[in-house]
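Can anyone check this?
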Amino acid sequence: MAQNGGDLELPQRRVGGAKELPNGKFADAPSLAERRRRDREERLGLLLWKKPLLTLRYFLLELLLTLRDWTCKFCHQRAMALTVLLGLACFSFVYSTEGTHQKYVRRLEEQLLRCAYWVGLGVLSSVGLGTGLHTFLLYLGPHIASVTLAAYECGSVNFPEPPYPDQIVCPQEEGAEGAVSLWTIMSKVRLEACMWGAGTAIGELPPYFMARAARLSGVEPDDEEYEEFEEMLEQAENAQDFTTRAKLAVQKMVQKVGFFGILTCASIPNPLFDLAGITCGHFLVPFWTFFGATLIGKAVVKMHIQKLFVIITFSKHIVEQMVSLIGAVPVLGASLQKPFREYLEAQRAKLHHQAGEGFPTGENWLSWVFEKVVIIMVCYFVCSIINSMAQSCAKRLQQKQYSEEKTK
């Protein structure tokens, strides 16, 4: 696999401190680097809390340009556009026509929306558009924990649908003793977990495509991660710090081991996996080799490890032991233990709520704090999207200026 890219010469080469451009001319490296550094600093200064009006203006402009580009690409792919339009027309006809098939259509709609929701959260967690939204900690992890606690309390995972998965309520029939096991809980949350994992795999594609396009076109992208990757390759022999050595280890594993190296990197919590995508793109690893290994690693192997950890952590006896340990804290133990016990009791009351009964009210401060943390993180994530798109617009305008200067 490594030979796929190893036999090719790099599209750009450096001669005497200067970089050869695609047109055969040489640009003075120090002046070019200095200008790019200033431009990058100018872009990074586009933040909502520093330049709100200019940032919003660039964000809206980038949004319009992106929509225009997507529309043009969609129109150019006439066969795909026709297929999509025909599919939407058929779906609309089936969806709006009354008949016995409607119950199956509704069921399919629910499942598709459910899958799309978790895939979208996975993409947000992996791509992040600059920051990343930790959707496992905010959404999937709490969902698995809720199902685990409910399963042990109800003695069953056959929660009535609806309201599940929006709300968990114990079934009216009592579960048999010992009917709930680790595997039944894992099976109950398998769809959500695998869809979230698939979303994280999809979110790893942008670094791969960026590096691959840069290698094939010979145009060096103004991307910090890619530049860091190139510098790391140039200084591989002199690497001293742990972080650089770890990145080099990931790069060598992916380059030399191939599919199973990518699978290994994707199957464990790995903050350096973006480097694996850049490495695969740079060395022209086939798309399905990269994406297949990433999908299996993240959606199957890694998700089962994470599910297992959450389910064990929130199993009934572990939770009771943790609450007891909180109560053993000197001086503050009883005060800290009380809200946790109240929260667990409130959750148990909600699980045994039946239709027609008054729903248990009252809000625990733990749930209140968690909700506010989620709101703050989502707001920060939205702000990061706006900042990132505004900076992309500024980058687009700077590149346009570079192109105009070259043609003069």
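Reply from J.R.: I decoded it. The chain has a mean pLDDT of 75.
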